[in-house]
Structure formats: structure tokens, C-alpha cells
Amino acid sequence: MIKQDENTLKNIVGHAKEYGFVFPSSDIYDGLAAAYDYGQQGVLLKNNIKEYWWKSMVQLHENIVGIDAAIFMHPTTWKASGHVDAFNDPLIDNKDSKKRYRADNLIEDHLAKIEAKIDKEITKAADRFGESFDEKQYRETNPRVKGYQEKIDQINEKMKISIETGQLEGLREIIEGEGIACPLSGSKNWTEVRQFNLMFSTEMGSLAEDANKIYLRPETAQGIFVNYLNVQKTGRMKLPFGIAQIGKAFRNEIIARQFIFRMREFEQMEMQFFVKPGEEMEWYEYWKNFRLKWHANLGIESDNYRFHDHLNLAHYANAACDIEFNFPMGFKELEGIHSRTDFDLGAHEKHSGKKLQYFDNQENRSYTPYVVETSIGLDRMFLAILSASYQVEVLEDGSERTVLRIPKPLAPYKVAILPLTAKDGLPEKGRELLNELRFEMDCTYEEKDSIGKRYRRQDAIGTPFSVTIDHQTLEDNTVTIRDRDSMEQVRISVAEVKAHIQAQTSISTLLKKL
Fold it and tell me: Is the CA virtual torsion 431, 415, 442, 265 positive or negative?
């Protein structure tokens, strides 16, 4: 399980910059808050994550297609979706530290601490009772655990009512009543809670006086909804069917923090699945299970994932949950699965005056489809991969190596070609192999420094395989291939190298397990 502490995240951030995964945006100007650039390793990893998601959603499902909608949309889109009136964060300031926080996040972090106390009690009891331990019964009967859970339920219920009714003083009452302190200063001197709209606005038009106010999209989903009819008609799609999209979204986060976990410019991978009303809960459960399987398929330890059901449902949903991941800063949302009912299509139909219904030939009637959404943050997925992969190992000889155990099909480079020396015809033989492999996979080539130092560099960027070209290669056309994870080395013929690597690094190896 990933260790939760500040040092772990700091180490990952430092490693990401040092090895070309993520740089602060505008770094030569001391950076721009909550904006990051993906470097030469990072862009490859990011593209591989996108490929795995896209192929698993679109290529493997004959009833799911993809689109790429514009970032700029008609302003009425955001009125219809509720973003103009309701896309707000409840913010609170600490008067002593002068720091601003989301009130609901402060409360959620406090609840997480109480949940950690429950987990601690259960772990102690499980160790004490061994195989006879019944966790469900213990949760229901142990007075201390019951007390913690009742406290969590009470706070959640009060927070839900406050958010739904807009009575934000209720959030402040929770913060003050629970003695929640500023994480930076420890002060409990808070202001009132107030709302802040998260959309970036700009103007479209050649002259200022002719300009119209428009917004940078805060989510990619609406681009799918406004194209529902276009896709359904041109693709002759029958319910149930889905529309997938990968794209940038923008939110004016006041509290942007924790590296690439929360940024103002980010990328989403979303799929909206249109279903017959009444069948949405069946499909909601299907997509919950499929998406968790997609994550588990990467081989990351299962205890780093958990479902979290929403107690405070958004205005458009009748069911919602998150797949949370064990980031270094704790369990946080990685992906959301929502049953959005017919809210979106119904709202756009009302505001546009266009009929957005589906004609069911079997029932000989028209109706507005319901929607089940899966939405995952690409940047958060990137951070989850780094968090699970980053390891510092002590070897048998007492030395250390830093290794990124990135799932092999997602690794930036699949193989490094390493001539033992930069002479005697070894570089020429190495580049001959490189030129054969580069048509099938991303490769890198190195001939500087000792072979040991080069192995360590490849470990640090997560390259699954290193192929060493030596003088024996010139004699019998064999090479040494080293595995990143086990560090085992085997001798194989040059003719076998491509198949050996592809068998473990091709995206298709992941897709076949779904």
C-alpha cells in the first residue's frame, strides 16, 4: 500500500522534474501556480494512459463511439447545464494564516481522520481475533467504532443539508464545532463561508464593443450532450450506446494544490452512456464494476482503491460514487461514476428548443434517454501511476536504486538499447536493432557511462527492458536483455527481442484481460 506522507509526494514531485515527466509551467519565470507542463517522459506516459482508456472504451465496445468537441461552446450551454448558477465552491479564509480553503474539503479531511480511527480499531481487532474476526459484526457492536461512525453520519448529513439548501453558515458551524484548524497555522479563527464560481470567462469577437462573453469549458461532458442527436442520427445508434471523449477542461480553482492532482487546466477522459429510462441503475452497476476492473488490470495493489458513495448528490444525479485512490496525501477521488438521469438532455432541449429524444421502434414512442457517466481525470491517473510506481530499493550489496515500476504497457519507453562500449562496431549493431524496433514501440538509445549507471537511469524512468549489445553479439547475434523489476538478465537472439518485449508491453496485453 502506498505510504501516506508529505515526503512521499515531495519525492515524487522532485523525481518527476529531474527525469523529464512533469515541469512547472513557465519554469524560467519561477512558474505559474497550479499549471504544469509534461516533459519528454511524461507525454509518452500520458499518451499511453489515453490509449489504454480509449481502446478499452471505444475499440472494445461496438456500441461506443468517440468525438472531439470544441472547447468554446455557446454561452447558453452553461446556463442549461447549471454551471452559470450553481458551479460554485464554498470558500472560507483563516484570519491568522490568510490562507483560503474549500469548506467542504476541510470537513472531508476531518472525516477522513475519523475514518482512519475506525480503520485503526478494526486492524487492532483483526490482529487480536485472527481468522474468527467478523468485521461487519464488530462495526455494528463495538461502542467506540459505533460512536465514530455516528459522528461521521451526523456531520455528513449536516453538510449535505447545508450544500443543498445553500445555507453555508452550516458549514462554518461544522468547522467551528469540530474544532477544525488551519492545516498551515493550526489557527481556528475563520471567516464566513461564501460561494465562488469556478468558470473562466473570456470574450469572443473582433472588437471589444461587439464581443460576447463566453466560457472555457469546465467539463467535457456538455460537448457530448449537445452532440447527442448528431451522433445518434449519423451513426444510426440504438440504445444503449455511449459517446466517449478525451479533452481539456478549465476551472478557476482558488485552492489548487497537491501537484497535478488539482489544476486549473486539466484533461478528462469521459464517456456518457445513453440508456432507456428505468435501466440506468443496471448500467450504473455495470460501469462501476468495469471501471474498477480497468484499474485493477494494471496490477497495482487492490487495497489502493476503494468505492466512495456520494451522500451529497449533484442536482442532476440519482446515484453517484467515486473510485478513490490511495495517493500520498490520502484517499482521494480518481474517477466518478454517475447516473445523471435525463437532466442534461432535458435541460438542453428546453433551452435550445430542439427535440433531443430517442424514438424507440419496439415501443413505438419517443422519450429522453437517461445517462450513466464515467469520468476520470487523466492528470490524476498520471499521478496515481507515479505514486504506485515510485520505489527506492535497498539491494543485496547495500546500494540503493530508485525505480519506477510503471505497468509495462504504459511505460514511456518500452526498451533501451545499450551498446556495451561506443566502439568496435557495437553502436552500429545497436542502431540496427533500434531501427527495427522503433516502428513497433517507443525506444531509447544510450552509449555514455558504465552499463550499471545506464541501467539505473532506465530504472528511474521506468523502462521495462534494457538490451545490451556486447562483443558476443557480433559473434552469434545474441544480446542480453534485462528486466526492470527483477533485474534478471537472459541471453536471447536478436530475432527474438521484438516478440519478447511486445508480449509484455503491448496495450493489447491489457485489453485482452478486460
Answer: negative
Reduce the DSSP state of residue 456 to 3 states and report it.
helix
Predicted TM-score (pTM) above 0.85: no
CATH number of the structural domain 407-511: 3.40.50.800
Domain ranges of the chain: 1-87+198-394, 89-196, 407-511
* Topology alike, domains 1-87+198-394 and 407-511: no
User: How far is residue 447 from each of residues 368, 464, 507, measured CA to CA in Å?
Assistant: 62, 18, 28
Report strand pairing: 415-419 vs 443-445: parallel
Strand order in the sheet with 415-419: 443-445, 415-419, 465-469, 478-483, 489-493
pLDDT in tens, the chain (514 residues): 677 777 899 999 999 999 999 999 999 998 888 899 999 999 999 999 999 999 999 999 999 999 999 999 998 898 888 887 666 778 888 998 888 888 888 898 898 889 889 988 888 888 888 888 888 888 888 989 889 899 998 998 888 888 777 788 889 999 999 999 998 889 999 998 887 777 888 888 755 554 578 889 999 999 999 999 999 999 999 999 999 999 999 988 766 678 999 888 999 999 999 999 999 999 999 999 999 999 999 999 999 999 998 877 777 788 999 999 999 988 999 999 999 999 999 999 999 999 999 999 999 999 999 999 999 999 999 999 999 999 998 888 888 899 999 999 999 999 999 999 999 999 999 999 999 999 999 999 999 999 999 999 999 999 999 999 999 999 999 999 999 999 999 999 999 999 999 999 999 999 999 8
CATH class of 1-87+198-394: alpha beta
